[in-house]
């Protein structure tokens, strides 16, 4: 038991350091350079890996986990849908939160493409007033199997796991299913899930329209 509380104390201290480093006032845009965002991404990723390996989202840790699945059918071949949909740059402007994406690394290993990036979002928190959020993420694209995964971390220690699967409907259409897992404090989990699902649904609709119209 002493070992657990000692470990938990270390986690809280690490979280406090990370939160303090990433805290910024409410505004419509960040002022960090891409290099500074890349350094923040690395610190967030290191903390995320440490926290995920050391703890589970149990009530004792004050965290909760919620899973949601959302799907959409797009009238276009799977190869085209997969290429357009998996390009995170194409998501910018398709929902009101996402303002821009900063890619830090883009590499391919063992047939899997790894994209490390930071998404800049304006999220309405109080009375519709937006707070700028930096979501640090890693995307792993599996082109031969038509799916990709994304793990992300943002303040205040909100984690999202995504697995997006593409299914050939055999009629020239494609079904895209997003398997979403949200992890946050018990205080924030409802807000996280509601806003997360709605933003993903809005992006799905935007991508469907853009792909079917030929814009993407």
TrEMBL record:
Signal sequence, renumbered to the chain: 1-28
The organism of origin for this protein: Planotetraspora kaengkrachanensis
Statement: the UniProt record of this protein carries the keyword DNA repair: no
UniProt name for this protein: Polyketide cyclase
Keywords: Signal
Coiled coil: none
Keyword Signal recorded: yes
């Amino acid at each position: 038991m002493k070992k657990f509380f000692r470990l938990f104390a270390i986690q809280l201290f690490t979280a406090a350091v990370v939160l303090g480093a990433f805290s910024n006032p409410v505004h419509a845009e960040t002022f960090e350079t891409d290099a500074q965002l890349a350094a923040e991404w690395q610190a967030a990723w290191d903390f995320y890996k440490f926290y995920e390996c050391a703890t589970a989202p149990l009530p004792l840790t004050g965290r909760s986990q919620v899973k949601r699945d959302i799907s959409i059918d797009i009238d276009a071949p799977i190869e085209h849908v997969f290429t357009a949909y998996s390009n995170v740059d194409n998501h910018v402007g398709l929902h009101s939160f996402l303002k821009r994406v900063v890619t830090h690394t883009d590499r391919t290993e063992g047939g899997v493409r790894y994209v490390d990036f930071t998404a800049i979002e304006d999220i309405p928190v109080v009375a519709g007033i937006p707070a700028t959020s930096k979501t640090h993420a890693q995307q792993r694209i599996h082109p031969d199997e038509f799916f990709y995964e994304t793990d992300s971390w943002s303040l205040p220690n909100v984690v999202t796991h995504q697995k997006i699967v593409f299914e050939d409907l055999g009629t020239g259409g494609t079904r895209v299913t997003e398997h979403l897992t949200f992890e946050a404090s018990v205080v924030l989990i409802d807000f996280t899930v509601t806003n997360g699902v709605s933003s993903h649904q809005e992006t799905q609709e935007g991508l469907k329209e853009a792909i079917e119209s030929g814009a993407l």
